[in-house]
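Re: weekly structure request thread

Next one in the queue (594 aa):
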Amino acid sequence: MTALAEPTAHLTPGDRPATPHAGMRAEGRTCPLPSRAPLGERLVEAGLIERAQLETALSRQAENKQRLGETLLELGFVTEDELLPFIELQTGVPAVRLREGLLDPIAVRMLPRVFAERLSSIALFRVHNELTVATDDPLDLERIDRIETATGLTVRPVFAFKAAIDRITRRAYDDDFRVDAVTADLDDSAVELRNDVEVDVSSVHQLVEGSPVINLVNYLVLQAVRKGASDIHIEPGRKSATVRYRVDGQLVEVLRPRRDIYPTIVSRIKVMAKMDIAEHRMPQDGRCQVVADGKEVDLRISTLPTVLGEKVVMRVLDKGRLTFNLGELGMPPGVLTVVKDLLRKPYGLMLVTGPTGSGKTTTLYSALELIKSVHRNIVTVEDPVEYQIELINQVQVESGRGMGFPGALRSILRQDPDVIMVGEIRDPETAQVAVQAALTGHLVLSTLHTNDSAGAIMRLMDMGVESYKLAAALVGVVAQRLVRTICQNCKTTYYASSEYLDALHFTGDKRRSWAKGEGCRDCFDTGFHGRKGIYEVLPSDPELRRLIARDAPVDSIRGWLTDNGHHTLLQGGMRLAELEETSLEEVARVAFFE
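Done, posted below.
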């Protein structure tokens, strides 16, 4: 059987050993010399356990007939991460911590379940004719030979604890990992290409159409949709390719296709996007529409030549998962009320700020959905237009044809608009035109890349917008971030230090517990599943306009924000942490920038 892919299997602490283990041959095979010192004595010498704890563990071991390491873990005297390096030294075999990440389903099925359970072993991944297998006794040469006989491959053993092997074996043989289940996912009803693909390069086309690569690409798209991934990254490497999903804003590695099939994968994707298959030295952009699990999904595809081959990124636009409803974005009631008040203004400039991937476009689209009407002429200028909305005229920026943001904005002003949405204010010219439009009776919505709401005012001034014009035009700023929410499947609680809470400006009961995720298969071992917005709203009023007009420093504007009872991004994040919806570390990562 030939494996299409080598997954990472989430091996820690040493990850996947870089080279095959030299020992472990039954016939003529040399076995690495293990350390002579007993494991318990080494742990005592290292200060990881007390002598009394060792004696307790040895007494328990005599009763339950377990290995000493498993007994120490069961008693809670050490952790897996503390124990594994000593076992590696003891056995001379790589020792790994198995997590419930993705395994190679093809490699897993090379070892029948009954066989795997009887031998306390699980196949992790295959590289050419070598199969890496986790087992609780890697020095058992008879066991290794039985696995080699059963699979016809050279076995590369690594150590893992029996409890971890039993746990991941149960999960790995579930339907999500069954090869036949994966194949069932790849029929025409699961992933259907909507575009009419016709390619002139018949030889390449036949190669792609006639290979299992179609199934692999379909599987990647299908799983991305099911896992809620926003992007699929497919990258060439020296020994293998890498597939990563961006889930909840973070990249997670899910698969390692063999290097020799990588060009065919890229060709298949180019066929789907109607790109030039023969062009490998220039970047290309394309798009296609597929139906995955009965849902329409747009794929925006980009290729980029690298020294190792073409890198592909597929933006997954799942229309079924979208909601352009301000009331469903998770805004606190007070924030939602203020934002709706800003959108009721007949004219002025409203800004949404935040880094890339913070949900600014979704907020703007939701705002447009709220205010759109047959009685209003709403026009947008975007780069690119990601989603099409009824009753809204959407313009695509074409910089190569002289249709940039400033030019498009000037043309829109001649179209009698009531509301204008500018995808992003990137340059001084766009800033000047947007402010002028807001001053001449139009409601202008746009985005900026700044840390917080007060920073947006400084950014526009840095772009050359006069302070008196900005003071008159600005109706409000919404700063936002997306924090990852804790996975409910692996949620646990802990206590944070007073120093850490002080750094986050927490003034409540510092003795309380906080929540975090330990990591499991459901969340790609991240401890998080899903995201939620945190918001900071800066509504304009006479006092704020006076501050802007006299070029007040950014700290004065931030002071005005808090003095008037508006929450900062950090306070919004801490509110979610107190509700145990996110972790303190996530709040610090996303919202703490002072």
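Confidence is low (pLDDT under 50) at residues 1-34, 175-189, 196-211. The two ends are 55 Å apart (CA to CA).
Next request, please.
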